[in-house]
């Protein structure tokens, strides 16, 4: 049998992660996947503090690697390569990961493969569902929102994306405005379930314009105005009205994502793919209303809809190990001159 076993490292935002993925005769398997979050470290600051994140990554990476190897029941000698997120992201964290990976690769005499974090997300549907190129991808998280056509392990074309906030960021800000807990996505979604999405009229930004670009910052402003008006009228935010506001806000985001997905699918289908596929990744893909809308439009347009399990949609190192395997198989490899890149468009 033909096998390839990679350790992956991820440290570009606020999750330190290590994972081992093995490809056996074309069949990938996740042997271990360790994710150590830092939410508690940043909670008091209302956002990720880059310096604190970098220090925590430097402290936790070794431990995550140890745990990933142990969980997989493997030693470094069983590996065929080390993959690491080399960007984009918070530079201190990315540097911690790249240095750790270089040390391991040099020490164990293994190939080193730098991975673009976004490529990690974008290649995940091949790890989980064996999706064939070319497929359409919607990356939708706290930091990203873009449509990509994945044509090969290093060949992506961008159809459009947000011109301001990412939807996850919008959900997080909405939660703050509604005095709901962070992360905002899940708490706004729970609140929205109790509300009427039609009670308040929210805009559907950029739907009147052609193309796949999106905008979400205006929705946040609309929510702020609506809230202030309610508070002025009622002397506070009544429970039912808060639920209605959340429902309207969420529906507006879902409608924009669904309509833009329809356009992206139409563009993608012009390539006449043999097995059309539409995959979604990122934390916002956890939202049931959004997910259901994307699934429906995908079915209507005749593409298979793929939503990887949530823990593989959010930041993790299995996707990095896998992207490393894909790059390595296409002949790519990096040297000790691999650098950490804060910005790195696909
Ligand atoms: O992919 P992710 O874990 O991290 C990055 O941003 O890279 O995504 C986190 C984002 C947060 O903004 C969070 O509020 C949002 O995903 N999110 C959701 C839901 N669960 C998480 N947004 C809407 N609905 C949800 N159920
Ligand atoms: Zn990510």
Automatic annotation (TrEMBL):
Keywords: Acyltransferase, Cytoplasm, Iron, Metal-binding, Transferase, tRNA processing
Cross-referenced InterPro entries: ATPase_NBD (IPR043129), Gcp-like_dom (IPR000905), KAE1/TsaD (IPR017861), TsaD (IPR022450)
Chief location: cytoplasm
Subcellular location: Cytoplasm
Primary enzyme class: transferase
EC number per UniProt: 2.3.1.234
Claim: ATP-binding is one of the keywords in the record: no
Cofactors demanded by this protein: Fe(2+)
Cofactor note: Binds 1 Fe(2+) ion per subunit.
Entry binding sites for Fe cation: 117, 121, 315
Domain of life assignment: Bacteria
Sequence ranges assigned to domain Gcp-like in this UniProt record: 29-322
Residues binding substrate, per UniProt: 139-143, 172, 185, 189, 287
Substrates-to-products reaction catalysed: L-threonylcarbamoyladenylate + adenosine(37) in tRNA = N(6)-L-threonylcarbamoyladenosine(37) in tRNA + AMP + H(+)
Keyword field contains Lipoprotein: no
Job description of the protein: Required for the formation of a threonylcarbamoyl group on adenosine at position 37 (t(6)A37) in tRNAs that read codons beginning with adenine. Is involved in the transfer of the threonylcarbamoyl moiety of threonylcarbamoyl-AMP (TC-AMP) to the N6 group of A37, together with TsaE and TsaB. TsaD likely plays a direct catalytic role in this reaction.
Family as reported in the entry's similarity comment: Belongs to the KAE1 / TsaD family.
Name recorded for this polypeptide: tRNA N6-adenosine threonylcarbamoyltransferase
């Amino acid at each position: 049998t033909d096998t390839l076993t990679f350790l992956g490292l991820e440290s570009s935002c606020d999750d330190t992660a290590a994972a081992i993925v093995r490809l056996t005769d074309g069949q990938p398997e996740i042997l271990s996947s360790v994710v150590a979050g830092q939410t508690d470290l940043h909670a008091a600051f209302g956002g990720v503090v880059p310096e604190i994140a970098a220090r925590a990554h430097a402290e936790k990476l070794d431990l995550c690697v140890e745990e990933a190897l142990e969980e997989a029941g493997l030693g470094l000698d069983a590996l065929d390569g080390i993959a690491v997120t080399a960007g984009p992201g918070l530079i201190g964290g990315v540097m911690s990961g790249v240095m750790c990976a270089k040390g391991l690769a040099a020490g164990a005499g293994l190939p080193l493969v730098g991975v673009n974090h976004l490529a990690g997300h974008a290649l995940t549907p091949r790890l989980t569902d064996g999706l064939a190129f070319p497929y359409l991808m919607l990356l939708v998280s706290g930091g990203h929102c873009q449509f990509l056509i994945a044509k090969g392990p290093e060949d992506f074309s961008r159809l459009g994306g947000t011109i301001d906030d990412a939807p996850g960021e919008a959900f997080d800000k909405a939660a703050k405005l509604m005095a709901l807990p962070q992360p905002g996505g899940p708490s706004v979604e729970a609140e929205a379930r109790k509300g009427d999405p039609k009670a308040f009229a929210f805009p559907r930004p950029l739907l009147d314009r052609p193309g796949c670009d999106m905008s979400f910052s205006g929705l946040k402003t609309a929510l702020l105005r609506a809230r202030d008006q309610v508070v002025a009228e009622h002397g506070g935010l009544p429970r039912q009205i808060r639920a209605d506001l959340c429902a309207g806000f969420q529906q507006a985001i879902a409608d924009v994502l669904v309509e833009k997905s329809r356009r992206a699918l139409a563009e993608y289908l012009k390539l006449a793919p043999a097995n059309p596929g539409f995959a979604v990744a990122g934390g916002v893909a956890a939202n049931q209303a959004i997910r259901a809308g994307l699934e429906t439009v995908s079915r209507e347009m005749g593409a298979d809809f793929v939503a990887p399990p949530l823990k593989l949609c959010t930041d993790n190192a299995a996707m990095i190990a896998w992207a490393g395997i894909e790059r390595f198989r296409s002949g790519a490899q990096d040297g000790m001159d691999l650098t950490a890149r804060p910005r790195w468009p696909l």
